[in-house]
């Protein structure tokens, strides 16, 4: 039975089965999720200020689940401060006519992947009446930031345009460059930062110790997490493309959740990546690994 190691945090709700783990387990893979990074939110109060000025933007760009968490945290902070959910209250604060309070609902939210789309949809349900809610979610079928940028360029008719762009502490310039070339200004706001989890090496040791099978797939979900994880991974695994490895290492193959992570592993680390998901979701990842495991099928 092949082992699949997912370098990610499992589903945040322990009462709900993790979609990745459930799908692979159903296909007779032994699967485990080991979080590599710890993420902390930042600039939440400033994000709340941007939310209050929502109608000054022609759109919002969200490319990660962490950015969705930051949006929710900003609304929770506003709730604790105002204790109100009346749209007219927020309209008055912004200096708008009361009957324009719902106008921010028309602001499109551009996202990468269904996970971010689902997270934003739950915010609409939990915070009715708040300004700049993500009622209009677009681009969820985009598999990368580059694809999302191209989608925004084709979808957004207004020029010039300014979009609020929520970021982490590590971002490539691909999306901003494409938008700026098309006359769209992405206004970045960092809302989270990542560091390596101090418990990752110990958790990895535990997972490897309980698995006797030598058939391993290591799935990378982000360049930053991959970079942090590599020193500990090299103590246990030997990867395609490596010239040297630890004497006790077992052979493992690499899979990437998308083209950005694939490019990092290939270009920055010199690895051969055997499977790349066509979209950032469990089904596409499973299909890529199954296809690479059984190329003649």
UniProtKB/TrEMBL annotation:
Phylogenetic placement of the source organism: Eukaryota, Fungi, Dikarya, Basidiomycota, Agaricomycotina
Residue intervals of the Tetrapyrrole biosynthesis uroporphyrinogen III synthase domain: 26-286
Protein name: Tetrapyrrole biosynthesis, uroporphyrinogen III synthase
Gene Ontology cellular-component terms listed: cytosol
InterPro entries registered for this protein in UniProt: 4pyrrol_syn_uPrphyn_synt_sf (IPR036108), 4pyrrol_synth_uPrphyn_synth (IPR003754), UROS/Hem4 (IPR039793)
Gene Ontology MF annotations: uroporphyrinogen-III synthase activity
CDD domains cross-referenced by the UniProt entry: HemD
Coiled coil (UniProt feature): none
Entry's Gene Ontology BP terms: protoporphyrinogen IX biosynthetic process; uroporphyrinogen III biosynthetic process
Organism listed in the record: Fistulina hepatica ATCC 64428
Any Pfam family: HEM4
């Amino acid at each position: 039975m092949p082992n699949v190691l997912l370098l990610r945090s499992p589903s945040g709700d322990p009462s709900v089965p993790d979609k990745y783990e459930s799908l692979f387990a159903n296909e007779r893979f032994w699967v485990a999720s080991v979080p590599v990074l710890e993420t902390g939110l930042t600039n939440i109060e400033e994000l709340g200020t941007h939310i209050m000025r929502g109608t000054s933007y022609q759109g919002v760009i969200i490319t990660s689940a962490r950015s969705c968490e930051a949006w929710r945290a900003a609304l929770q902070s506003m709730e604790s401060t105002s204790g109100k959910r009346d749209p007219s209250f927020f309209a008055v604060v912004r200096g708008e006519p009361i009957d324009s309070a719902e106008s921010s609902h028309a602001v499109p939210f551009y996202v990468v992947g269904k996970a971010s789309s689902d997270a934003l949809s739950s915010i609409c349900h939990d915070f009715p009446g708040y300004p700049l809610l993500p009622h209009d979610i677009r681009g969820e079928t985009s598999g990368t930031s580059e694809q999302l940028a191209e989608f925004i360029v084709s979808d957004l008719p207004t020029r010039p345009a300014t979009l609020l762009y929520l970021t982490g502490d590590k971002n490539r310039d691909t999306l901003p460059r494409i938008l700026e070339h098309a006359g769209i200004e992405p206004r970045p706001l960092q809302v989270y930062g990542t560091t390596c989890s101090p418990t990752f090496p110990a958790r990895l040791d535990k997972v490897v110790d309980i698995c006797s099978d030598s058939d391993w797939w290591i799935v990378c979900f982000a360049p930053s997490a991959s970079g942090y994880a590599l020193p500990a991974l090299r103590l246990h695994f030997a990867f395609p493309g490596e010239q040297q490895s630890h004497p006790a290492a077992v052979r493992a193959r690499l899979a990437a959740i998308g083209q950005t992570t694939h490019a990092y592993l290939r270009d920055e680390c010199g690895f051969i990546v055997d499977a790349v998901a066509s979209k950032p979701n469990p089904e596409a990842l499973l299909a890529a690994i199954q296809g690479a495991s059984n190329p003649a099928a």
